[in-house]
């Protein structure tokens, strides 16, 4: 957005002003635009050509009532923003990425990262100051400071090491990582990174990080696992002491509508079956949630969960006064 040449900067600013005028009113005549811009009609025609080159459909018509008109394009053209528009856009994206709506936060962060690449330093200070006055409420993800997201997003983009304090048991330890991807779930932001001290891939909750910083030391990218899949599997199962797999007699689409992505990994097994992989603090807890889905299912793993199913089935039937003779005979002594 900053242009070294004064003449080029003047032309860019004039084209931005022209675009703003075309957006304010349906039709402008050439002399009207020339008068507003302080240039000749010939310069207006050149600037209209520049807008067309950028992808903006500017139509020209002759005769009474004719003039220049901004139409609707087939493709999204590059956005030309003045300083106030750039600040407003960045603050809005910061609010959306940092706190809020689960379905748009990741898109807001991607857009903000693109804008950050070209945002002049003088505007970054204003964005930082204004973002402090933006709040959100209601549902969505656990809020995190927007500047933390931006620091991590830049580190991922620029392939530089990052550091932050992170709780580990009863302690808070400094972590040094190679950051690769920010992943948004239905509830939280996560960072997929290579932990340099543990020499392995790790998933970190961004809302648990403090004192986040990016270094200037660049790293050579490693072969990275699929970020969304890796984080989802970690959040839904690997972080728990007990894990289980089930074959559920329903389509993956049906089960995914019932289970949040952070609670289980659902994999299609044909059009009418799916595999559900989940974890919990106890196997009974995992079993209860699969049972309450309301579909027939089979325990795939671990074997002891199958035996637990039989025990619970016998107890429930006994409570109803309907324990089959076959179950009573198989009761362990």
From TrEMBL:
SUPFAM superfamilies: Winged helix' DNA-binding domain. Residues 11-66 form the HTH deoR-type domain. It comes from the Bacteria. Keywords: DNA-binding, Transcription, Transcription regulation. This is Helix-turn-helix transcriptional regulator. The lineage of its organism: Bacteria, Bacillati, Actinomycetota, Actinomycetes, Micromonosporales.
